[in-house]
Amino acid sequence: MTIQISKYGSLLVSRPAGHDAYLSAKAYLLNDSLDKIELDFSGVEVMTPSWLDEFLTPLKKEYGNKVELKFIENPTVQASLATISASEGK
Taking every annotated instance into account, which residue ranges of this chain make up the domain DUF4325 (predicted)? Predict the structure, then answer.
């Protein structure tokens, strides 16, 4: 299963929007029988750590190592991922 993150917009900046995106993915795209969940970040222009935290953190809690990231070359995506990773270690 591949989730095109850009389907939630190209400017992903708020916690409420990230939470809504996660709930939408959970309701319509995700199920327990998935072997792999690929998050495709192509087409995302701006992403903040707050949006990503609301989307990725619960996704990783539920699906763990099944979550894979693709096309994370965008500097704001990279910075947001680094911030989320740093806060996980606290």
Answer: 34-72
Q: Computed from CA positions of residues 16, 20, 21, 22, in that sequence, does the dihedral angle turn out positive or negative? A: positive
CA 28 to chain centre: 15
- How far is the C-alpha of 77 from the C-alpha of 48, rounded, in Å? 7
Domain boundaries of the chain, sorted by first residue: 2-88
Structure tokens that stand for 59 in this block: 């996704």
Residue 48's φ and ψ, nearest 5 degrees, are: -105, 155
At 87, give phi and psi (nearest 5°).
-75, -25
* pLDDT tens per residue, range 32-90: 888 999 999 999 999 999 999 999 999 999 999 999 999 999 999 999 999 999 887 65
Residues in the chain: 90
Mention every residue, 6+ apart, whose C-beta is less than 8 A from residue 10.
43, 44, 45, 46
